[in-house]
C-alpha cells in the first residue's frame, strides 16, 4: 500500500528542504485560510511566514460568488494582506479563456451573479433563464416542450453554455441549457465550480454544482471545459499571470482531493492537503494506491504545516 507523508512526522530540516524547493505557493481560500467569515487559526501567521521567506503567494479558489477585489478585501479584513492581482477565480479564468479563443457569440449562463457581471463588463452578451421565462412553469410535460421551443428562438445566437454554482438553479434553467446544447450547432459547455459539496463548518455542508454539470454531460454527450480546479484553462491562467516556468517549484495547498490536489497533480505541482475543510483523515486512511489525486504531503492545517519555518 502506498504510504502518505504526514508533515507532523517530518523533521524540521525535511520541511525546510521542501520549502527551499518552492518559489510559488498557491493557496485555496475556503477550508484552508477561512471557513465562512472566520479565519482558520494559524493561517494569518503562516502566510506571513511564507512571504518572509520570499515565496510568491497566490490565492486560487473555485468560489465564483465574489470578484477578485472582493476576495482581496475579505482576506485583508481577516488579517491576510491581499490584492485583486493575487487572486484567481473561475470567473477571471472564464473571461481570459473566451478572449483567447476570440469568442464572439452570446452566452447562456446558469451561475451566480458575479461571473455574469464579469462577462458583461468584458463586453460579452449574457442570457439568463429569467430572460426567457418569467413565470413558474405549469406542472405539465407540455410546459417543458414550450420552454424548449421558446429558448431556441430567444437563444439562436448562443455559442456557449456556462454552468456554475447557482443557488437559484431550477429544472427549467437546466432544460434550456440541454436544449441549446442538443439543438444548436457548435455550442460547448464551460463549467465553473464543480465541487460535490462545500463545508460550512465542522458539522454542515451544502450541495454544490457537480451533480448537474455531470448530468448535463450525460444528457448532451458533451464534455464540459472546466474553468476551475481541476482544469487546464486555470493552469494556463496561473502560469501566465504568475510567470511560472517550472511547475515543480510550485506548491498548492488545498482541502479537497478531487479539486485542489487533482489539479496540482495534473499540473505537475507539489501538493499538500490540509484537514481543515473538505478532506478528513478518514478519506486518507487506508489509502487506495490506484487513486490519482495522491497529495505529496498532509497537514492538520496550514498553520501546522508552516509551524517550523
N-to-C SSE string, H for helix and E for strand: HEEEHEHEHEHEHHEHEEEHEHEHEEH
Total number of β-strand segments?
A: 15
Q: What low-confidence regions span 5 or more consecutive residues with pLDDT below 50?
A: none
What share of residues is helical? 25-40%
Strand content: 15-25%
Order of strands across the main sheet: 5-4-1-13-14-15
The total of helices stands at 12
Main sheet overview:
6 strands, parallel
Provide key terms for this protein.
single chain; 309 residues; alpha/beta; six-stranded parallel β-sheet; five-stranded parallel β-sheet; 15 strands; 38% helix; elongated
What features would you describe in this structure?
The chain has a 6-stranded parallel β-sheet with strand order 5-4-1-13-14-15, sandwiched between helices. It has a 5-stranded parallel β-sheet with strand order 7-6-8-9-12. The chain has a two-stranded antiparallel sheet with strand order 2-3. Helices cover 38% and strands 17% of the residues. It has helices at residues 12-20, 43-52, 68-77, 90-100, 113-121, 129-132, 141-154, 171-183, 210-220, 232-241, 257-267, 302-305; strands at 24-27, 34-35, 38-39, 56-60, 87-88, 106-110, 126-127, 158-163, 188-191, 197-199, 205-207, 225-226, 250-254, 270-274, 297-299. By secondary structure, it is α/β, with parallel strands linked by helices. It has 12 helices and 15 strands.
Amino acid at each position: 500500500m502506498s504510504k502518505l507523508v504526514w508533515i507532523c512526522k517530518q523533521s524540521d530540516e525535511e520541511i525546510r528542504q521542501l520549502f527551499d524547493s518552492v518559489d510559488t505557493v498557491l493557496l485555496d481560500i475556503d477550508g484552508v485560510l477561512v471557513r465562512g467569515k472566520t479565519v482558520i487559526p494559524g493561517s494569518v501567521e503562516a502566510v506571513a511566514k511564507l512571504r518572509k521567506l520570499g515565496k510568491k503567494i497566490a490565492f486560487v479558489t473555485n468560489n465564483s460568488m465574489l470578484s477578485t477585489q472582493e476576495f482581496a478585501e475579505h482576506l485583508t479584513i481577516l488579517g491576510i494582506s491581499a490584492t485583486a492581482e493575487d487572486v484567481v477565480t473561475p470567473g477571471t479564468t472564464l473571461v481570459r479563456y473566451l478572449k483567447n479563443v476570440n469568442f464572439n457569440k452570446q452566452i447562456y449562463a446558469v451561475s451566480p451573479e458575479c461571473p455574469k457581471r464579469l462577462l458583461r463588463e468584458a463586453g460579452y452578451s449574457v442570457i439568463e433563464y429569467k430572460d426567457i421565462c418569467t413565470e413558474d412553469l405549469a406542472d405539465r410535460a407540455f410546459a417543458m416542450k414550450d420552454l424548449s421551443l421558446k429558448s431556441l428562438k430567444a437563444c439562436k445566437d448562443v455559442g456557449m453554455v456556462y454552468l456554475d454554482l447557482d443557488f437559484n438553479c431550477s429544472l427549467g434553467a437546466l432544460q434550456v441549457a440541454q436544449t441549446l446544447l442538443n439543438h444548436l450547432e457548435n455550442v460547448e459547455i464551460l463549467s465553473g465550480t464543480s465541487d460535490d459539496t462545500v463545508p460550512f463548518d465542522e458539522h454542515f455542508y451544502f450541495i454544490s454544482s457537480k451533480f448537474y454539470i455531470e448530468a448535463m454531460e450525460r444528457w448532451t454527450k458533451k464534455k464540459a471545459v472546466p474553468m476551475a480546479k481541476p482544469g487546464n484553462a486555470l493552469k494556463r491562467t496561473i502560469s501566465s499571470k504568475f510567470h511560472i516556468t517550472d511547475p515543480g517549484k510550485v506548491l498548492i495547498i488545498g482541502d479537497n482531493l478531487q479539486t485542489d490536489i487533482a489539479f496540482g497533480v495534473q499540473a505537475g505541482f507539489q501538493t499538500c492537503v490540509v484537514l481543515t475543510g473538505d478532506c478528513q483523515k478518514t478519506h486518507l486512511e487506508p489509502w487506495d494506491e490506484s487513486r490519482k489525486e495522491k497529495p505529496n504531503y498532509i497537514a492538520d492545517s496550514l498553520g501546522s504545516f508552516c509551524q517550523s519555518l
